[in-house]
Design brief:
395 residues; Rossmann fold; 2 domains; 5-stranded parallel beta sheet; globular
Length: 395
């Protein structure tokens, strides 16, 4: 889809470009627009009378976010308690926090452990706890932004439309290509496909009102096109992920790459890093032997196109390739000591990729094809101008 800004000069010209942590000032929205953000917040945080809400936080979160969740909980007749950890980077829940979590029916968390720790997964599966992960809601002023105000139902329909673009059945290959030479392939089996279809996030349900659910707020990232747990793989399972990614950029770097950097996979593992730049050397020291954690795709048309901090872009069709390394990166620890992600993680980013699942195109030249889905366009008309809502990306 030509005409959309995706190239390095476009990134460099963007006022919202961000690959390293920096304070972002959010201009006050009109009262009418602000109320859209407040309404989305209250609906996603589907706290019920009688709930016991536990909030897992960190020292750097805006305290007004905690106060907002507490106020909503108390206003709905729920009880509330907050636990402040050392940082967001827990990969497992500390023992001293577990007694607090055991009592919860509703959890709001900034911690990385929320999605991966078997203990947290068990609380959702066995106790029916409803969880909201707030990686992208660390500042209450975000309620003034178009991405927070974008209709939750419309975002869900975009996600479902992307899901409908996958093959209906059978084995296939998810292939990613781009003008720099990326040719990256993830084999999908019928079993993996059906497991993905059942996942809560691919159902486009972004409201935490179902027992055992796990949703993200702000609901911007979209579900991953591939994630081992999402498709039912066990940690030790290998499926033959192969090929080389030539990213435009990566989280942890202030600017897009001036010289080519290529990350090559063979049999699910990073085999080599190609390039002569200092960025390539950073990745070479860090990523060899690492494994693919996710192929993520943005879905919120009002997320700033070139803001990739802290966990990859949220704009439709922009991709991030999450890789987990064997050991923490000294470089990331140095430039992002308070990063919200563990320092074993690296998100490679592209804005101009084409993604094909079997013989179906999900993303073309960085444009998310589900934005043209008839059901998406029809629903968008109930909220305003479909072109403005779906294709006027904030730059």
């Amino acid at each position: 889809m030509k005409g959309f800004l995706n190239q390095v000069p476009d990134i460099m010209a963007s006022s919202t470009r961000r690959g390293l942590p920096r304070k972002v000032e959010h201009k006050p929205a009109s009262t009418a627009d602000y109320m859209k953000g407040v309404d989305n917040f209250c609906r996603v945080m589907a706290i019920r009378p009688g709930d016991h809400v536990v909030m897992l936080t960190d020292p750097l979160i805006d305290p007004r976010v905690v106060q907002a969740v507490q106020g909503l909980a108390r206003g709905r007749g729920a009880t509330f308690i907050s636990y402040i950890g050392d940082s967001t980077r827990y990969v497992t829940v500390p023992e001293e926090a577990k007694p607090l979590l055991e009592r919860a029916t509703f959890v709001v968390s900034t911690w990385f452990a929320s999605v991966l720790d078997p203990y947290c997964i068990g609380l959702r599966r066995n106790k029916g706890q409803r969880w909201v992960k707030i990686t992208f809601f660390r500042d209450l002023d975000l309620l003034h932004t178009p991405q927070a105000q974008f209709p939750v139902e419309l975002l869900g329909e975009i996600i479902r439309a992307t899901g409908r673009m996958f093959p209906e059945a059978g084995d296939f290959t998810l292939r990613v290509t781009d003008p720099r030479g990326t040719d990256f392939r993830v084999p999908f089996s019928e079993k993996m496909l059906q497991h993905l279809r059942r996942h809560n996030r691919w159902r486009g349900h972004n409201v935490a009102d179902e027992d055992g659910c796990y949703v993200h707020y702000l609901p911007t990232h979209g579900p991953n096109l591939f994630e081992p747990g999402m498709v039912g793989l066990q940690p030790e399972e290998k499926i033959g992920v192969t090929g080389t990614i030539w990213p435009q950029w990566a989280v942890g770097f202030d600017e897009p790459f001036k010289e080519p950097v290529g990350v090559e996979f063979e049999q699910d593992v990073v085999k080599a890093v190609h390039g002569d730049s200092w960025e390539a050397q950073v990745m070479r020291d860090y990523l060899i032997g690492g494994t693919l954690e996710e192929v993520g795709c943005g879905h919120n048309p009002k997320a700033p196109r070139f803001d990739i901090y802290p966990a990859g872009p949220n704009s439709p069709g922009a991709l991030h390739f999450g890789i987990n390394a064997l050991q923490p990166s000294e470089y990331l620890r140095r430039v992002m000591p308070n990063w919200e992600e563990p320092h074993i993680h690296m998100d490679l980013v592209t804005f101009d990729s084409t993604v094909v699942a079997g013989n179906r195109t999900l993303v073309e030249d960085g444009y998310l094809m589900s934005l043209r889905d008839p059901k998406v366009r029809a629903l968008a008309e109930t909220y305003g101008d479909p072109v403005e809502l779906l294709e006027a990306y904030p730059i």
